[in-house]
Amino acid sequence: DGGITQSPKYLFRKEGQNVTLSCEQNLNHDAMYWYRQDPGQGLRLIYYSQIVNDFQKGDIAEGYSVSREKKESFPLTVTSAQKNPTAFYLCASSFSTGGLYEQYFGPGTRLTVT
Amino acid sequence: KQEVTQIPAALSVPEGENLVLNCSFTDSAIYNLQWFRQDPGKGLTSLLLIQSSQREQTSGRLNASLDKSSGRSTLYIAASQPGDSATYLCAVRGVGGDAGGTSYGKLTFGQGTILTVHP
Fold first, then answer.
1. pLDDT value for B98
2. How far is B38 from chain A, CA to nearest CA, in Å?
3. pLDDT at B106
C-alpha cells in the first residue's frame, strides 16, 4: 500500500534536547513538506522540498532543520533553539510536476517537550 | 499575503441533515483548492481537489464548489451521518512566486470547521 509513514506517533523530550522526527513516503512524490499544528492556529508550514538535496524555509522555520538526501525521506529535527516545540507535526507529499499537486498527509507525530 | 477563513468554526447537526461548510480566501490568484478531513489526533485525509479552472467536484455525498473571482468555496455534505463527525479544513495553493507570501506548491490553510453529527 502506498502512503506516508511518520514515526514515532508520540515523542517525549526534555527541554534543551534536539529531536528528529521521521517521515517516509512510497508514493514516488517529488515534493515533501513539514507542517506544525497547534490548537486554534491551523497548520503552518515549517519546511518544504521539491527535489532531492534541495529545500526551502516555510513560514516558521526558526528552530528547525531538515535534510532531503533521498526522494522517499524528509526528516525534521527540532532543535533546542525552538522556543515552543510542543505540537502536532504533520508530514505531507505531492507531485511537483504534472498539474494536479494534490497533497497527501501522514498520520502525524505528537511531540511533548517538558 | 493569502488568508483563508472558514465559517462556521463549529457546527452540530442531527443525523440526516444536508449541510454546507464555507471557506473564503483573500487572494483569488490560486492554482487549486483542496478540502481535507481530520479526525482527532490523526493526519489529514484529502476529500476533494478543485482546480482553479473548475467550478465543482463531487465524491459520493460530498460536493465542493469554487467561485475563484469572489474568493469562496463551499463543501456540501448530503445526508450527514455520525461518521462524518470530524474537523474539515480547506487549503488553497498559490500560482507561483512569493508575491503575497504564497509560493507555488505551498498550501495556505483555514483553521477548520469542527463538525458534530449526532444520532
1. 43
2. 10
3. 74
